[in-house]
């Protein structure tokens, strides 16, 4: 496969109709899946998050909807390219509906796949700035990966226009939460610090893997709490993580510098491996 490929409800190059509620209202969720040789990596972690998103939005469920959707996405991709390696985005909308916010009595969710071949490996550390665009707090959607990403789009665009790689996004109080596309970690000594996602932020699959497995496996403690100015001042290391890039080292955030890479190097070598939930 030379370029990108698209499917709508399993049909290659089909079109999404203009009355789709995901298009009109951002009524849906998505998962960005790293695929190697036709296999979705860390599948169960993606299934867990997708399942929560579908439940929170009140999508029709059959008990294993999330697992079925990801398995079908994997199957569709393999049928086109058996040894596909790259990024597979699975978007699930509520499907078509009449004008207005009211959820249709009969719902027919729509699955949209976009496959981008090639592994996105980044070597150079990121140079970041703190964005003026902040996360909107909504604890009801705690950790879900919803379609509406306007804040992240605007924050990243502004940072790139200023010559930065990415941006740190804060909550309403100004505390660091994440980058525009990844969960955030600082290392102070033998402790990883990462912000909570109870009010804002996404429950990243690689964040979860670090918290419940890889930190302890590599000999580190974890503290899930607000990142303070004192933490930033003394942190030796910083990185972001997501399913596509894995670990992205952060060299600096404005005037704060993070010179070391010992933990992020170790995590880079294992972050996409399966680990117990």
Spell out the blueprint of helices and strands.
Blueprint: E1 5-8, E2 11-12, H1 21-25, E3 28-36, E4 39-40, H2 43-57, H3 65-80, E5 86-93, E6 110-117, E7 126-134, H4 150-161, E8 166-170, E9 176-179, E10 183-188, E11 191-194, H5 205-217, E12 221-224, H6 229-234, E13 237-242, E14 246-253, E15 256-257, H7 262-268
Q: Biggest sheet, in brief? A: 9 strands, mixed
Summed up, the domain count is 2
Report the C-alpha radius of gyration, rounded: 19 Å
Number of helices, counting only DSSP H or I runs of 4 residues or more: 7
Q: Report the mean per-residue pLDDT as an integer.
A: 95
The CATH topology of the largest domain is given as: D-amino Acid Aminotransferase, Chain A, domain 2
- Our measurement of the CA-to-CA distance between the termini, rounded to an integer number of angstroms, reads 33 Å
Order of helices and strands: EEHEEHHEEEHEEEEHEHEEEH
């Amino acid at each position: 496969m030379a370029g990108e490929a698209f499917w709508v409800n399993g049909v290659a190059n089909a079109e999404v109709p203009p009355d789709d509620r995901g298009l009109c209202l951002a009524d849906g969720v998505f998962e960005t899946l790293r695929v190697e040789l036709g296999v979705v990596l860390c599948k169960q972690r993606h299934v867990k998050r997708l399942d929560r998103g579908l439940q929170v939005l009140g999508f029709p469920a059959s008990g294993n909807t999330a697992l079925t959707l990801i398995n079908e996405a994997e199957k569709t991709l393999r049928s086109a390219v058996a040894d596909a390696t790259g990024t597979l985005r699975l978007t699930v909308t509520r499907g078509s509906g009449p004008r207005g916010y009211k959820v249709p009595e009969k719902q027919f969710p729509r699955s949209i796949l976009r496959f981008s071949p090639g592994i996105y490996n980044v070597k150079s550390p990121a140079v970041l700035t703190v964005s003026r665009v902040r996360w909107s707090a909504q604890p009801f959607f705690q950790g879900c990966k919803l379609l509406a990403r306007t804040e992240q789009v605007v924050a990243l665009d502004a940072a790139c226009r200023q010559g930065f790689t990415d941006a740190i996004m804060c909550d309403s109080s100004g505390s660091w939460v994440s980058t525009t596309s990844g969960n955030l970690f600082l290392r102070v000594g033998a402790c990883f610090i990462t912000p909570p996602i109870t009010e804002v932020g996404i429950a990243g699959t690689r964040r979860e893997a670090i918290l419940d497995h890889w930190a302890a496996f590599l000999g580190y403690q974890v503290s899930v709490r607000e990142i303070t100015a004192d933490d930033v001042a003394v942190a030796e290391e910083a990185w972001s993580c997501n399913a596509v890039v894995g670990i992205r080292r952060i060299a600096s955030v404005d005037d704060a510098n993070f010179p070391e890479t010992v933990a992020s190097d170790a995590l880079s070598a294992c972050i996409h491996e399966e680990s117990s939930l």
